[in-house]
Amino acid sequence: MSGYVGILVSDPWLQNQFTQVELRSLKTHFMSMRRESGKLTVGDLASRMSRLKVVGENLSEQERADFIADLYPNLNDEVDFEFFLKVYLKLHAHASAITGSPAKNSSAFLKAATTTLLHTISESEKASYVAHINNYLAQDGFLNKHLPINPSSNDLFEIVKDGVLLCKLINVAVPGTIDERAINTKRVLNPWERNENHTLCLNSAKAIGCTVVNIGTQDFIEGRRHLVLGLISQIIKIQLLADLNLKKTPQLVELVDDCKDVEELMSLPPEKILLRWMNFQLKKSAYKKTVTNFSTDVKDAEAYAQLLNVLAPEHSNSSTLAVKDPLQRAKLVLEHADRMGCKRYLTAKDIVDGSPNLNLAFVAHIFQHRNGLSTQTKQISFLETLPDDAQVSREERVFRFWINSLGNSTYINNVFEDLRNGWILLETLDKVSPGIVNWKVANKPPIKLPFKKVENCNQVVKIGKQLKFSLVNMAGNDIVQGNKKLILAYLWQLMRYNILQLLKNLKFHSHGKQITDVDILRWANTKVSNSGSQSRMDSFKDKSLSDGIFFLELLSAVQPRSVNWSLVTKGATDEQKKMNATYIISIARKLGCSIFLLPEDITEVNQKMILTLTASIMYWFLKQSVEEKPSATSDSENGNQLETISNSTIDDSASESSVE
Question: Which of 328, 522, 641, 659 is 20 to 30 A distant from 427 in Cα terms?
């Protein structure tokens, strides 16, 4: 099993829609269909797909034929495997829409973003997000001609088509993510410029923790409402939950009793911390229940009434808890919130209906506005005893966002905690090297028995050795125990393997040979030299790189129109270096590089991140050439794994990539 070569497709988005089990099954069906007459045309699909579950069981042959004909009128065109997969996905979605839900026992091929704040679209949710946008972007000079947006209209979906609003919203959520000098903001944008904005938006959204596996630039152009709102909801959620950590709000330490509990608190996702905070405050009231979710547990509005009485007793209304009607109580709760100066994000009906998305937003805003926690420094003394390793934190962030960008089954909030059962690591390995995991001996969560977790992690280590990772003295139990050093070392090598494999798979340039770090360095210097520049980097830790000029020249070399040199500084001061660094990152993302490094990684010349950036640009450039010369690549059925790099961090041959 370990030597099995998985099924690869050239479209990274398409690859991420299926597990290897699903791809093997569909490939078998496809080959069987094609063998029947020697070839397979668009016109043949309706009848021959009757044997497939979901699309065969829930759609008649005529329904399939009509649907396919509307999408692809050239019925005599021959079908390859990737085209077949695309048709299958569209038919699957069509069948699900007709039946109201996916067919029983069908695989969830159309995966939902695991972190999305939005699962089903409602007018109330749309209105809430529009109100948020109107409030936070009201003073934006470019968008003021569009704002305020009418929440009862569909104007939002028209405005997002140029990509500017979403880029600006990302900067509201995580300030400084996008260098606004890189956003195309002409009054009338051509299709190329709009696509650049959308690409910049999507790669930046990934860099702040959004899951965008099923979203492409075309979805914005077509104004696909559920996908647009799904992304907006994730961005807003990240903004509202930004303070729910000990770095931003050290007063949260009041929720725990000792250092061990502090470490546990630090590993929790922000939603869980918000629930813990809410229950902590409710213990000060007469409310005896424990709130475990933002839906059914708050529908009667009693918890809200008690929470607001604790946080703002001066605005309380004695009749709030006395009323019997939940809807009336919810209205009084919102009036209380208004007197506190809190934004609503929801209506009384949304509370009674138990809308989890809007209730979460409401509670998060209450926390931001008045958290009721102690400001006494004595309470925060616990934090001084905890290790504060900024580099470990930065690396953990990179790995976490990279893993989440791959579209695994579960979104992770902390690599040291969420990878302990081995399952997500196995999924990640299967994404990086399809078919390498022996799923027959893997244990799927939830896993209660510790030895089952060790079994998964033992396979993770075994595969790492098979891929020639340096894993001296590392065992599966080290992952289960959350050994930070060893987990980081493993992930580093996994990401390095991923990017080198992606570059190797660009056979037109690599001829199937392994690409090395030296090749990447040589390629970058050659591109810059051929453009007429004298700039050069001697290594990935060359301190002269801190001013950013070399990378701006590299970006200009691979795409001459990408850099506006009038916006580039000399890089003489720290501030000028940072300005160039932020511009570099946004330009690279705008081209199509999915990278997670920070401006500090360039200004401080973090050699691993510098290598990552160089390799990302190299991969993007070489991929363009491959796509322009399809005859030079392998056939479409066994296409190359042209996946987004997703900050596939690489190290040179230094010992840092090894587990000592």
Answer: 659
